[in-house]
Amino acid sequence: MRSVRPAEGVPVGALGDALARGPVLLDGGLSNQLEDQGCDLSDALWSARLLADAPEQIEAAHTAYVRAGAQVLITATYQATFEGFERRGVDRSGTAELLARGVRLARRAAAGAGRDVWVAASIGPYGAMLADGSEYRGRYGLSVRALERFHRPRVEALAAAGPDVLALETVPDVDEAEAMLRAVGGCGLPVWLSYSVTGDRTRAGQPLETAFALAAGHERVLAVGVNCCDPADVDRAVRVAAGTAGKPVVVYPNSGERWDAAERRWAGGATYDAERARAWCDAGARLVGGCCRVGPDTVAELAGLIGGSAESRGDRGRAGDRQGKRKVRASGGAAGGGTAGGDDSLENT
User: pLDDT tens across 245-278, in order?
Assistant: First the structure.
């Protein structure tokens, strides 16, 4: 496998050390696991609604991925924003508490693993807040400065909750990536930057070389790569990211199924092949997992192929949760995680 290491000066802690040793296994899609558990995700807040209404379901989903062997859990905060919760009548202090709850739920699931499991706080793009699928187009008509102002309060709230890393994910274009990197400048945490792409370009049409080069000069960036894209797009993206940014690469594509917005259902068959992860790792991938419609079974398969120690894979045989067959929202983006139990109500918000 290709030798990669975190950039000098990055306060990456134990996760960075693990990446220097070899691949680290991410979880899979949070939405499909929640729907398999019977949750309704038709609300504009998507899975973030459950932070307020059913936090135990989020912890249950995180636990499913821990049992599958995941070494990193991504919080249910992808679509959790101050603006989105304000429309539901939640004030800013209440929203900050819900964001912190997302980190606590993942942390509780991680604590039950009996091994190292890190928590990544998900920060989705501006378009996720709009809930109209524009996170897969970008080009919102906002300046970099305006996007930075949008992202900064959520970055600060999530960083204060104490995750191990911030996941800047499903980013559709370079302008928003620049804004997000500005927003995390004083957060005190490492971050990964992950674009949503089509072929050899971002969703907004910029070349991958341009997109990944943005991360090369940022010491705080732990890894750079792609997520919520077709698995076929990962092969080239890994090579370009590794060669352009000189950092460990993060990859977690979706299942390869296509969302039919008119029929509001998934079409086509799944094309995610866990065996391809070997080639991704050989090309420089160090954080590897799945996004929409990739469930615990696939993560367990990945654990057997690229997962770390035997201890980190010890629970995967008990991952009885099946991949989701129900539809998820058209604007569904990245977040994966799993765990059960625990009462974390909204009483103190």
Answer: 999 999 999 999 876 655 656 788 899 999 999 9
Place of tokens 């259902």: 265
Per-residue DSSP letter, 213:
H
Please say whether the beta carbons of 346 and 316 come within 8 A: no
Contacts for 208 with CB less than 8 Å, ≥ 6 apart = 195, 197, 200, 201, 202, 236, 237, 240, 241, 244
Say how far apart CA 106 and CA 73 lie, in whole Å.
6
Q: Letter for the amino acid at 85? A: F
3-class DSSP string for 245-307: HCCCEEEECCCCCEEECCCCEEECCCCCCHHHHHHHHHCCEEEECCCCCCCHHHHHHHHHHHC
In angstroms, rounded to a whole number, what is the distance separating the alpha carbons of residues 260 and 195? 22
Q: What pLDDT was estimated at residue 135? A: 82
pTM of the model: 0.86
User: What Cα–Cα distance (Å) separates residue 9 from each residue in 179, 218, 292?
Assistant: 22, 10, 33
Ranges 44-48, 69-73, 184-188, 288-292: which has the least confidence? 44-48
Q: Check the CA dihedral 187-196-273-329 and report its sign.
A: positive
pLDDT, average across residues 289-305: 96
- Identity (one letter) of the amino acid at 312? S
Q: What SS3 class is residue 52?
A: helix
pLDDT average, residue stretch 140-169:
97
Instruction: Please check the confidence at residue 4 and state whether its pLDDT lies above 60.
Output: no
> What is each CA distance from 192 to 248, 298, 312, 339, 346, in whole angstroms?
10, 22, 22, 23, 30
| Mean pLDDT, residues 102-106 taken together | 98
Q: Are 298 and 323 in contact (CB under 8 A)?
A: yes
Contact 45, 76 (CB under 8 A): no
The closest of 31, 12, 29 to 291, measured between CA atoms, is 29
